[in-house]
């Protein structure tokens, strides 16, 4: 007598399907900011890979795991750029008009001036319109992390300044009642008010290092 064995098709349990859908949704959220943009220097630093997905799949909180790993990579990028690293250290510091330190709070130019002096030894002017005369003017398509980005928020050019982070994001101290935070330049408010960028080039940085050396 022959016995016939029937192979039962593999079925994923509801938990596996649900976890897969959650991870897929998380990927959409985390990668949406890159959609429709061309490659830029440093723009893929926070990209997710198979190891990220494996860690998320085995985690009780897959979305939290993906977000944490992406932020960790962005932080590693910041370590390579002292200006960005110093600026990100000020996240959450409250806005204060005329403020120029974490203790007093920052206005937009106060944050940039404080960050540049601490990270680069570079003393920038104390208002955004004067900062817009420093360094080298660059096109928007040439933006790189660490460039200064300017906006018209008060009815005049260069009335607001922040530090570009890559992937159309910048860090800044926004306005009364706000705190130092990261925002997307593609938001309508910022997109229509954008009016230029400057790069703190080698000449400025060499001059700052020379001034520091003479003071020692």
Protein architecture, described:
This protein is of the alpha+beta class and 216 residues long. Helix content is 40%, strand content 15%. The chain contains eight helices and eight strands; from the N terminus they run ααααββααβββββαβα. The chain has a six-stranded antiparallel β-sheet with strand order 3-8-4-5-6-7. A two-stranded antiparallel ribbon has the order 1-2. A hairpin with a 3-residue loop joins strand 1 and strand 2.
Offer a concise description of the structure:
This protein has 216 residues and is an alpha+beta fold.
> How many strands, what sense, and barrel or not for the largest sheet?
6 strands, antiparallel
- The mean pLDDT is 76
What is the molecular shape? globular
State the assembly state of the protein chains: single chain
Amount of beta strand: 5-15%
Question: Percent helix among the residues?
Answer: 40-55%
Separation of the first and last Cα atoms: 97 Å
Total helical elements:
8
Number of strands: 8
Low-confidence stretches: 4-14, 26-46
Radius of gyration: 23 Å
User: N-to-C SSE series?
Assistant: HHHHEEHHEEEEEHEH
Strand arrangement across the biggest beta sheet: 3-8-4-5-6-7
Based on helices, strands and strand pairing, what is the structural class? alpha+beta
Blueprint (SSEs and pairs):
Layout: H1 14-31, H2 50-57, H3 62-80, H4 82-88, E1 100-101, E2 105-106, H5 108-120, H6 128-131, E3 136-138, E4 148-151, E5 160-166, E6 169-172, E7 181-184, H7 188-191, E8 194-199, H8 202-215
Antiparallel strand pairs: 1-2, 3-8, 4-5, 4-8, 5-6, 6-7
Helix pairs in contact: 1-3, 2-3, 3-4, 4-5
